[in-house]
Design brief:
The chain has 525 residues and is of the alpha/beta class. The chain is 25% helix and 15% strand. The protein is built from 14 helices and 16 strands. Its EC number is 3.1.6.1, 3.1.6.15.
Amino acid sequence: MGTLSPLAVLLLAVLLRAPPAAQGRPSFMVILADDLGWGDLGANWAQTETPNLDELAAQGTRFVDFHSAASTCSPSRASLLTGRLGARNGVTHNFAITSLGGLPLNETTLAEVLQAAGYSTGAIGKWHLGHHGRHHPTSRGFDYYFGIPYSNDMGCTDTPGYNVPPCPPCPRHGATTTSPGDKECYRDVALPLFENLTIVQQPVNLSSLTEHYAEAAARFVQRASDSGRPFFLYVALAHMHVPLEVSVPPGSDVYGAALREMDTLVGRLRRLAGPDTLLWFTGDNGPWAQKCELAGRLGPLVGAWQRRRGGSPAKQTTWEGGHRVPALVYWPGRVPAARSSRAVLSTLDIFPTLVALAGATLPPNRRFDGLDVSPVLFGQSDVGHEVLLHPNSGAAGKDGAIEALRLAQYKAFYTTGGAKACDGSIGPEERHQPPLIFNLDRDIQEQEPLDVASAEYQAVLPAISRAYARALEDIATDNVSVADYSRDPAAVPCCSAQHVACRCQAPPAASLDHGMERRATRLCL
């Protein structure tokens, strides 16, 4: 009989010693995929690359009308961790590698609430809510952090993977560091990998990142088990954001191979969850269509009205393909198995729901856009949001402004526009007064808005107008934060400014292979 690998031994130990729920409180694992399409999930759209996620759907509850709080990276993540839209928490567009600020410090994160309630808190993967000073994850309620501080394309690597257009590897000593003409490729600074406050790899080896994330998650859960405390683990995956780093034969389906790799990782993470752990899987926004064959699948969310006018109806837009995302909740014995819910839910709901299940209290002196949807999770109700707001996320209108909303089955647009598509087209920004209104029950493809002269339009318009006015008034009278979007090159994470592209002085890969917890922190400061 062969010997078990060190990781297998660790996984076995975690399973045998799953952390008990302190005073009956559950542990939580939130897995957030990046740029995943609603149609990428096999349970949603008959694909074959996601057997582990499909098994989660079969053994848990699948939410088919679930939405990210914004359709781009930083605002979506800020809203998940605060339960508040960017119009309230101040995060309305993405932070840069030179950003001095981040999620405003007066905003309270889910991790801070659970940490104060006695939870072990960990974040693994993409952060993108500020990395300079007190904006780092370990200053925002997380006991432990392991990951990349922003998107995995915001720095060069030696393993650049697949991208559209392709990006070159990091320069070596003596090579020029002049950035190429394509502004989408970073050339001057390598992508960093952090453990807590220490850069442990720069550039990141993307080909081994998935394995390191799985190992870091196992270590965190083991430490939580040893402490006897419940845990909150937030895993923000690099998948399916470009660059996709997978080994495939020439001519193979790169996106499908990367999707299978992500699915395998989710399966490994699921096996870390004990019987007292609620697992919530979802995505930060829809596919990045301008990446062509490396972009996810929209399924039926094709935004046909916008497509006829040019541009993409996916990431960065307020079309369904931009913000309707896959969502699964798994908790054997508590969350019903093989159930599909049509309740209108959002990543905004994760904050208040987990706070309630932990027996904690929401932060005072602010309003929340999310709801405690635990009755929906437990199959006691199928009622979610009657009104759900969709902020502008880059394709049209002022970033963060609310110019689209959902009321029951109706979707109203006061502004439309398409993001950059694979063919390079960008849909023009158009203002609508009165608004475009779609009935999503009949027209999930958002193909034809209701005729303004129709009885249905005239019947629903007053309710939409009232809901819109109430929402704007509620935000205007709330305790609203303002994010600092100022930039300074000194804020760029740099392992060694004396080395080209900030490379670490010594390759840390061997140290990674021998276990993070035993490595000296001198490597990259």
